[in-house]
């Protein structure tokens, strides 16, 4: 097929990761790096993204019209009221990224957010804090896998609920004798 027709993102849950990591940090008595690990994880992922999409292999694919798979920052509203409401938006701004911030967070960012390319700042510090987390015995991979599983399950349930709602509305319309048609767009 035509790789130029493929568009995709690689999604990263942000505040959900911090919520889980912060709890684990509290359990081991270290609150110093709370509220930082999710951003650090995303910055390290972005650094790897830049390496991959500046490689010779990628350049060869791009000449064939392949598109970059962009990082998508999901769950970027601050769940912890102690943290600034634009914490995750302010710290993950950079080229080729997507942020799925909710309307309230967008309003907060438009009101007092900081527009600056930040996703590539302090990556060495991010690596140090991630290493510190491991030294504390906290398994970030296990946490991110659990957050991923929970997030996928929540999105799947939302999708199933949407489909059920549409099916129910269709059934009611048909029961009322109304004509219902749909197009798949193909």
From TrEMBL:
Part of which pathway? Carbohydrate degradation; pentose phosphate pathway
Q: Name one GO molecular function term.
A: transaldolase activity
User: Where in the cell does this protein reside?
Assistant: Cytoplasm
> An example of a Gene Ontology BP annotation on this entry?
pentose-phosphate shunt
SUPFAM superfamilies reported for this sequence: Aldolase
State its role.
Transaldolase is important for the balance of metabolites in the pentose-phosphate pathway.
What protein family is recorded?
Belongs to the transaldolase family. Type 2 subfamily.
| Protein name, UniProt field | Transaldolase
